[in-house]
Amino acid sequence: MNSWSWSVVQEFMPRFWDGVIITLEALALGTLIAFTLGLFWALAQRSSVRWIRVPVVAFTEFVRNTPLLVQLFFLFYVVPEWGPSMSALTTGIVGLGLHYSTYTAEVYRAGIDGVPAGQWEAATALNLPRVHTWRAVILPQAIRRVVPALGNYVVAMLKDSPMIAVIGALDMLGEARAFSNETFTSEALTVVGVAFILIAYPASLLMRYLERRLVH
Amino acid sequence: MMTSEFFESWFLPGIWITIQVTVYSAVLAAVVSFTVGTLRTSQFWIVRFLAGIYFEIFRGTSALVFMFWMAFAVPLLFGVQFLPMGAGVLALGLTYGAYGSEIVRGALAAVAPAQREAGIALNFTRMQRLRRIELPQAWPEMVPPFNNLLIELLKGTALVSVITVADMTFSGNLLRLATNASAPIYTLLLVLYFVLAFVLTRGMRVLERQAKAGIGQTPPSSGLFSGLRSKSTDTAVTGGVK
């Protein structure tokens, strides 16, 4: 290595931790949106009303198959023209949450499809109201099976979260870029790159453990 | 608004660059997938271990951070300067190759053990078994997950715009700076990416049909608008490789 200096790393550390907090904040709130909105999409896709089902399927399919980066640009530059103006971080959180909600919708759908038909029939036989059937019979069984898959998408979201730096949020990558530009050094990028691996690896180990415990 | 001159000098070449980046990184990712995926089924533990380390490291890597690192940190650290497109293609190919290696490994592991044993009984070498027996049977299983991965890769190519490769996202941003008409530009961009993903899916469906025909299966026919991804209940439940 030609130019590696630990003192530069030392100097970057305070800003690195600021970035970690922003990244985790974006991840936590993005996950919250993705999990709730995804369940909403999954239920809407099963609706018996054609006018709800078809647009929701089309919308989620479109969002899932177009780049998150361009969606972030869209939310950041287009939405304020006829809607609320949001900070870069808020835009990033909404973008991450919305994008990944279309993935979690698929996960919930698979989980719901995996609940045996006998459970539905039992709920009908017991004359349970529709809301009760979902809340007390179907969803608990469906969600238990898909927890590891949902977790994997949290890890995937973590790895996509640096995209919010492109619209100006000061997450780990945003701090590293700002620091590198001010000091003409490159250590910060390496630190952040290693940090992602160090966070993502234990997280994916945890998901594999959950998969063994909950799915099989 | 969008002048035809700008459109011809920036936007159309941008589409072409996006297609090029997609093709180059898909080829690199395919090479990495098959190499690492096969090595992960090796009989030597050290080979399995090293290939496993590659998989774990690149699966934990954020493609965007890696791309920045290749473009801005590697020249300072090692004195190697890539062309921007080279850095982007390498970063995408290496990361998506790691995901692909899991597809290859899984499909090889799913080939019936008796097939491998038959190859051994016939005195095939390891390479002959792989080429003549295991890969041909594993290949049809790989095509649908590769389709999903290819769409992820296409979406990932938008990232090269931030390391100054003039792909269509890059030219879209230029156009916004020049005209301030962000709504039509980004809508057009999203639609273009969707169209490309749609075209890729149709191509992969043809490939799947051929691959399955090769082992005497017919995949269930899916309508033109049946969604771009193959929906496997199993991968959705376990999260697949993502």
From TrEMBL, chain B:
The chain crosses the membrane at residues 15-37, 49-72, 78-99, 149-171, 183-200. The lineage of its organism: Bacteria, Bacillati, Actinomycetota, Actinomycetes, Kitasatosporales. Coiled coil: none annotated. Residues 15-201 form the ABC transmembrane type-1 domain. It comes from the Bacteria. It is found in: Cell membrane. Keywords: Amino-acid transport, Cell membrane, Membrane, Transmembrane, Transmembrane helix, Transport. It is a multi-pass membrane protein. Belongs to the binding-protein-dependent transport system permease family. This is Ectoine/hydroxyectoine ABC transporter permease subunit EhuC. Its main location: membrane. Residues 218-236 have a biased composition (Polar residues). Residues 215-242 are annotated as: Disordered.
